[in-house]
User: What shape does this take?
Amino acid sequence: MRKILFATLALAPIVIALHYLADLSQTVEFVIAAAALVPLAWLIGEATEHAAEHTGPGIGGFLNATFGNAPELIIALIAVNEGLTEVVRGSLTGSVVSNLLLVLGAALVAGGRGTLDRFSSFLSIGLLVVATSLFLIPAIPGWDGDPDRGSLPRIAVPVAIALLIVYVGVTWYSLRRHSRIHVASDEEITGWSLPAALVALALTTLVTAVVAEILVGSIDVFADEAGLSEFFVAAVIIAIVGNAAEHGGAVVVAYRGKIALAGEIALASAAQVAVFLIPAVALLSWFLDPLALSFRPVEIATLAGATVFTAGVIWTGHSSRFRGGLLLAGYVVVVVVFFLTGDR
Assistant: This one.
């Protein structure tokens, strides 16, 4: 399987070359780009696992969340520049929900019985509670009238700044905590060196961003042919594509028995999207086209529901395939809700 995955890494440069040099249909581009993201996601998971041997699962999960969310930031800013505000908001909230339910659920199913870092897990859950509560401030005014009217982006600025301050403070504390509790193994580390793992993460993330941009550029045609709403495409398909790194990373390391690291990847990524990625997009959008965080009621309700449901499932700090199945079932419910909701 490793040989196959290494071989299919060639799909990434192929899809990039075909995009710029050939005149392919957008549907074909979508399929090839989606296939190319699978080995890239696996490689990010592989590099993260090697980095975690040097840093411990907490910092390893933070690294995977950071590099894994970089493509989502790039995709969101490109969509903002093109005026696709509903796509941006839907993909960001959908990303949080898919990390909580789909990524963590798939990881628990792949890993089976194990133990999560309960303190770190509920630190991420707490960040999601804070973020969801603060999102109500810019969201509620957008429930009446034009959700993109000029006054709404200004309401998002103090909320974004507050969330970034919370993110910096909690991240500093969390990384210091993980540095204190991590004890290096007495066995000689035979995997990649830490610099090699970090370089691999950075380069793979860059290529993933390019491939994901190609996929998003062709997703409208795919959606039209499938008869899907723009909101569903953003909140489900683009969110899953943007989270390809987290999917691959969490499932790979969970399957290898590293449940704590898999949980860190999924939960840290969900929290990072909520308290870092969304406010960062809101602030950076002022250099392009100011974005209002006018999340729809269904998005706020789904964020809150997914957070509470996930907290209940992992309350004991233990993982199992049954708990993973519950999370996956919850995501199926969310997908159905998003499908039935349609566009604003």
